[in-house]
Amino acid sequence: MAAVLAVVLTACSGDLLTSGEEQETPAPSLSSSPIPAPSTRAPQQPSLDRYYSQDVDWKGCGDGHECATVQVPLDYAEPAGETIDLDLLRVPAEGGKAVGSLVVNPGGPGVPGTRYAADATSYFGTEIRQVFDIVGFDPRGVGGSTPIDCVSDEQLDAFVAMDPDPDTAVEERASDAAVAALGRGCVENSGDLAGHISTVEAARDIDVIRALLGDRRLSYFGASYGTFLGATYADLFPQRVGRMVLDGAIDPSLSSTEMSLVQAKGFETALRAYVGACVDRGGCFLGDSVDAGTARIRKFLDDVERSPLDGADGRRLEIGNAVLGIWAPLYNQGYWPLLDSALRSAFAGDGALLLRLSDAYTSRTGDGYTDNSLEALFAVNCLDHDDAIPTAQVAPRIPEFERASPTFGKVFAYGLAGCAQWPVPGEQPDGPIDAAGAAPILVVGTSRDPATPLEWAEALAEQLDSGVLVRRDGDGHTGYNAGNPCVDDAVESYLVSGTVPESDVSC
């Protein structure tokens, strides 16, 4: 597994196996009025009219859902050129009459949004589902939206299984070659698409979707990477922002090194919380203290690197799989018992359950990968950042990363080189996003979130001119619908009624 996966995989984790005066923003409405032009910060070109005014043919696609495909330009600089398709899925409002659409994105980058919307009853409260059509879309290059294709399932298996923190020059060269081969495959199999699935382009697609849904302003819920996508939209089209919630936020002002250090600390904090819960129960199989427990896990990883375990489906549990298998349950406190079982079995020599947890993290089943989320993850992130360093320059940075995370520090350090061999040049984000002139934007952060640490949410809320922070004290990735009524009330009151907290909220 190339280490870049550690740095930027911020997908919203799914099923691992199988006070004062209220401020109001106008309620979204399905207006029949003409769609106004975008703000002057992102002028709509007349040549884009055909995309904004295309007919959308919604058809039933099971379970009361409606599906459609719309077109957007491959390259917004050449709108008369090649087009690509975007898959949409709409879950009609349960109340029978929607006040508008809530566009949702679960993160990744690379996770299909249609699947997120289809499972709306699992992710969104009744009040939201009563008044909004929940609309998910597969971002360009993802899922059913002209998907990027890079390598075979067998090549992806080998890629994920690789040592994420190479110990020798031979392993470093193998890691570089694997990333280069993945990127080369994207270009060879997907052509120009490999250079046109950036977050900025996906954000522009959202504005086309907004217009085609008939909403003058965008109501949006983004989780994890979906917060970066939503914040990018808000910066491009601030006057188009309606009610927006960004949960498990990413700080767009950080360099890759800064992001990696914070995320390394976040995963270490989450691991220590997991081990601490085990110790507090008494008789913990990991050890009698948090330090002893994390050391036991680190020793286990070192042992697997030397001697992979028997896994499942004729496959072995390699070191890359073992790391991901441990990370996956840290996204949701409810999955900690699964990690208990997986580690107990693995300590006894059976790596099957830990391999299945790794597979869940990368959308793999016994029959292969169910989507292209892993390929899209690399393709999008390497387009969005241009500050990768050569693998040979990683070693001097390792001590700093190991201070942040004694268990996973080297993995995150080598992630800095993950896009150095990518064949399509990337662009570094412009820095802080302020979205000046946008309606209030609710930013949610969780204190022990492994993938998107609380300090990122705090930073994004501070950067946004209209940001309002909701802090959740808890474990797991993202804060809404995670068992905290205070968070749920703040999010639902804003989306449904437009009620904006007078100040930041601590839950």
TrEMBL record:
Disordered: annotated segments: 19-47
Which InterPro entries does the entry mention? AB_hydrolase_fold, Pept_S33_TAP-like_C, Serine_prot/Carboxylest_S33
Q: What molecular function terms (GO) are annotated for this protein? A: hydrolase activity
Q: Which UniProt keywords apply?
A: Hydrolase, Signal
Q: Which domain of life is it from?
A: Bacteria
- Ranges of residues in domain Peptidase S33 tripeptidyl aminopeptidase-like C-terminal: 405-507
Pfam families in alphabetical order: Abhydrolase_4
Tell me which family the UniProt entry assigns to this protein.
Belongs to the peptidase S33 family.
Q: What is this protein called?
A: Alpha/beta hydrolase
Q: Which organism is it from?
A: Nocardioides jiangsuensis
